[in-house]
Design a protein that fits this description.
Elements lengths: L2 H4 L1 E2 L27 E2 L18 H10 L1 E2 L16 H4 L2 E5 L2 E5 L10 E8 L5 E6 L8 E5 L5 E8 L3 E4 L3 E2 L2
Parallel strand pairs: 2-3
Antiparallel strand pairs: 1-8, 4-5, 5-8, 6-7, 6-9, 9-10, 9-11
Bound molecules: fe (ii) ion.
Length: 172
């Protein structure tokens, strides 16, 4: 059974999938490289293919890690843990039995906030749980109940300081 099927989100609002700025990634996939190519951020919204809505949240999170700029195939657009202060962006993991709480010491304001938080299965490298956040939330928090023995890696995306990832952890 896939982990994704049995992880349940405990807390957190369920925002509709909305796309703005950097989230509008990946609609110019190249068949040759099967990679996602991203235009400059200011033009990202202009390239959505006709008839296509925003990608699923899990896909958005995958793309934030894997997308490339046009002309830079193989070079990730967002280099993890490279902009901003680590103490504000490295995901913090707390375990209470099978309950995982992922947070960060980061502000949540309209100008500066954590846009996405997600967990990947370290074994399969799949996104197994993802949350889109609104700047009106009190704090960046993703809470989930996870099966024992699963090893996960936490990620988040700040609207100003981009992609950050934390250390793997295993649920007892
Ligand atoms: Fe930030």
């Amino acid at each position: 059974m896939k982990v994704v099927a049995i992880i349940t989100l405990i807390l957190g609002s369920s925002h509709a999938f909305s796309i703005d700025r950097r989230e509008a990634l990946g609609f110019a996939a190249t068949g040759v490289f099967s990679a996602y190519v991203v235009p400059p951020v200011e033009t990202a919204n202009a390239i959505r293919l006709p008839g296509q809505g925003p990608p699923p949240l899990f896909k958005v999170c995958e793309l934030l890690e894997t997308a490339n700029d046009i002309g830079k195939i193989g070079i990730p657009k967002f280099k993890p843990n490279s902009i901003g202060s680590p103490e504000k962006h490295i995901p913090i993991i707390e375990l209470d039995g099978q309950t995982v709480s992922m947070s960060a010491n980061h502000v949540m304001t309209p100008e500066h906030y954590i846009q996405y938080m997600w967990l990947k299965d370290a074994k399969t490298n799949e996104v197994v749980l993802a949350k889109e956040l609104a700047p009106s939330e009190n704090a960046p928090l993703l809470k989930a109940r996870v099966p024992s023995g699963v090893t996960l890696r936490p990620y988040l995306f700040c609207n100003l300081h981009q992609l950050w990832k934390g250390d793997e952890f295993t649920v007892a």
